[in-house]
């Protein structure tokens, strides 16, 4: 269902909703070759959710596709990530918590090493460390352009964010300058349309200034830019779903994606045990709360199965408090899988559990786990189909087509 | 699969098909907290279907979406209801059995109450009863417009149907006059495009005449119009599926939706037990029969679990006679769920059973019910995917792509 279709049937009354995201929730069998971290963990509150309500699996983007954090969360907010694409520059901005404004043009930058002939010798400047790279970024942040404010922010290691904030209007339709391989010169910034000619000219001038600023540096004597983009003009979450949404997350990326669709966002400490207090403090007039736990994903990326189990148990322990702070319907899931066995995001479907509100069919499922969710009455869905499902259980959707 | 894709592979030979729709078939657990009405009912013939053939679940429109009757049936006829949208005016026309012709412009009307300043005080005229509203509708039916016939038909209570039948051509692209809330004046009928200027002018004149006709009435001294629409120009069922279809239903709405896609439609008494005789009488040259049972939905809307069980048993009892009157493949399902527990249409997936023809995989499923169908070999589908499935079992689909 398109968001415009959803907009036709959503209602302002009904129950509130909690979306509790355990980042990278889905996993693969651990040491015993059978149970995933979720299946090995002792999670009485998640199990209770499954028994009172229902469960299922979802593919955040599409079957076989490994989601990044941005698309994974967009899907949970009801936005089909294959249709709603976030530009690379904007994504970096969200990741570092830069307060992008409508009309800003953002790009992802790499410090690189150029050889004596000006060709790219290393696209990542020997993966320069963050601190020396930060000092270079601060120098580039001082470059001035006519009629446009310029911001440069370090992301991590060789990665930085470039933002142009024009007095007037700028199109982000400029091609990457990164040639994508070594042995070639950086490309000039080419406008993809007439509207982007001024942007390309400003970027060309900025690149000249950056090159002279970095002359003689080693290894980072050049820069490459890609993913020129602006904040998208999408249907806003509060209007589509007729909800007053609040995001609570420790990391800028997740607050950023939430703000991108029109949520209010507040920072929380990293530990799940700190979430209920923050949610209670800010929930106020909100009838939708997205609360984010990062530790599940981090333990997966670190290949630490036992820590994944421990974080899942900690996340489970605070669920009753969180759910009672919001009331109504509770949806617990992840934005993608991060099996410890793979030490990375993966394409595997993600378990979800839904309870509260009304209208669940009986199921024999007793535990919240990957295998059990395959038998769940809520089915195997695409990630963006979970919002309509939760909304209906909350009594917030009218009939389609009378 | 798009209808244009289906058209490429359908064949004129093969077995006939019966689509037996038990309206609002899907349910939720009843008094015992476990069994739905379908699971509680004694349905030996439906169970036999599942054992001989296969079963599954379908989402008529999309996951989490509660279908209206129109979209639910379109899906069963193979039309994706998110793509094939029926205008509100046309839907009302189908509902009252008005014989809409191509080029007619139909709108849904409300009798309303206007205050002394001409603002809407009640959008439904105090939910005026049907009989006094009918007398008002008959007076409005007498209004004349140049070059255009005008029809007004009562629907129920404050609801009526307005149809303009022009000598020439009229575009239905006119905005609603219903402001959607009280305290505002009705909007003038604004054309959405140049082609609709004449329609808007005719509607404006009709509204003037209606207002003077209703002057002094209490509570219905005004009218609001919305959902201006014409019969859609869609691929026709007989051409897409290469079938000669017959619809048999007691209610105008279902015959109307069937006619909308090009089916021949006949009226039947309300009781399932009367269906086989009507089907036998009219089946003749038809190789597709859509037979409709309303009582399952009605019992659900009334919150009457026991009556749902009784109607399901009655519908089950006549299945063998119906199936033998048509021969070939039998598909039994609903257009949506109507759990007695919710007293309304709902978003829950609907069970379906398919038998006859050829090509079923073995399944351990012994009963036709919501839980059992989740384990069925025919899977969990979108509603519009059932027609291709049934067609293939009937030997009526050739290879796609040779």
- How many separate structural domains of chain A? 2
Radius of gyration of chain A (Å): 23 Å
CATH class of the largest domain in chain A: Alpha Beta
Give the helix tally of chain A.
15
Helix-and-strand structural type of chain A: alpha/beta
Strand content of chain A: 15-25%
Quaternary structure annotation: homodimer
CATH topology of the largest domain in chain A: Alkaline Phosphatase, subunit A
Please describe the biggest sheet of chain A, giving its number of strands, its sense, and whether it closes into a barrel: 8 strands, mixed
Query: Which regions of chain A have little confidence, pLDDT < 50, spanning 5+ residues?
Result: none
Largest contact between protein chains? A-B, 28 and 36 residues
Description:
The structure is a homodimer of 402-residue chains. Chain A has two domains: 3-85 and 235-393, Alkaline Phosphatase, subunit A (3-Layer(aba) Sandwich); 90-229, no CATH class. Helix content of chain A is 32%, strand content 20%. The first copy, chain A, has helices at 3-9, 37-40, 44-52, 69-76, 88-95, 130-140, 197-214, 237-240, 252-260, 275-283, 295-301, 305-317, 319-326, 370-373, 386-393, and strands at 17-22, 54-59, 105-114, 120-122, 148-156, 159-166, 222-229, 245-249, 264-267, 288-293, 329-333, 350-355, 379-382. An eight-stranded mixed sheet of chain A has the order 9-8-10-1-11-12-2-13, with helices on both faces. In chain A, strands 3, 4, 5, 6 and 7 form a five-stranded antiparallel sheet that branches. The A-B interface holds A 1-2, 5, 9, 358-363, 375, 377, 379-381, 385, 387-392, 397-402 and B 28-29, 33-36, 57, 61-71, 81-82, 85-86, 88, 91, 339, 341-342, 345-349, 370-371, 374, 380.
